[in-house]
Fold this protein.
Amino acid sequence: MVILSFESISDYLWAMPHPDEGFSERVSRVREIIANRNLEAIVLRRNPNLAWFTGGRVHVPSAIDLACFDLIVTSDSLTVVTNAIEAPRLIAEELPNTIEVVVIPWWDGRDAQLPTGEKIGTDQPAANRSDVSLEIEMARASLTAFDAQRLEKISLDAAGALGRAMKEVVYGDREIDVAGRITHALWESNLDTVFLGVAGENRAHTIRHALPTSEVIGGRVVASICARRKGLIASATRIVTFGPQNESDLRRYENLLEVEAALLDATVVGVAFKSAIETVQKAYPAYGFDPEEWTKHHQGGPTGYLPRDWPATQFTERLIADAQPVSWNPTGSGWKVEDTWLTGSDGPVLLTQDSAWPSVICNSRSRPGILKR
């Protein structure tokens, strides 16, 4: 085991990250949990929580939940435990320089370096540590002002990249061709892909989570993204059609925007998430959809450091927090509408805006239209 000091990492000091403006507030939120639960320390292990706490990239493979390091928070110290492979990159590019780094050989596990016992909290439940996963999730529900500004920029970039890629789609493309265009545009905007769904004309009516296939898109393509930068995630969906379209079918998209408007109207700080779902249960039939349409796909929920922290249901008692990222995603009749919003006292504010994409007004809000080719 090696504890890296500033002297021992002089080769990396030129790129040493400094704490962002929201870092001290995030530290304070975790230390408040330590005090309230009468703990000696909290060990953070999960990707979304570490990304939130550090403001950095904490994954190597993007498909696993555990991060490439663990973080020990006490009332007066911050310590990362990682291996010799990850330490140089983390120190140079990801971690605030107020965090001490303990480095172990790559063949050793990190568990032996972590404190245990009932006085130790963790976001990854274990028999010999106290589970504080819910408290950590609630601590990151409301973004700091700095992180809210960062998500706004990420959302603008994500929506812009998705829009540019969708404008390049041509009739005869396969779903995987569309996915390639989108992935390229996202990486050009320094965004990695957490989720990418592409549904052509046939699959849009039957597949709600449409992982792209080699099928030709036909006269309609619906593409959805969850795009990430430094842990924060923006979600959006855009639609392109080719050639003449059935007008009554196009009106179904307008009806779906009305369903979404009901969800957005119900997104009120201090009100339970279940209220929004109870509202949408009534909205679907009110705008001409089958009363059971809401049961065929989740309607969305809180986001930020995961595509969704959890899908909101009619049983969700958790209250909508202030400055909380939310993405709703109602679907029906082969259409989908989805964007990322930030809650506030005057209602949710749209983050994934794209002034270059066709728009329509629904219930006084600017919403994405259909790009007709």
About this structure: The first strand starts at residue 2 and ends at 4.
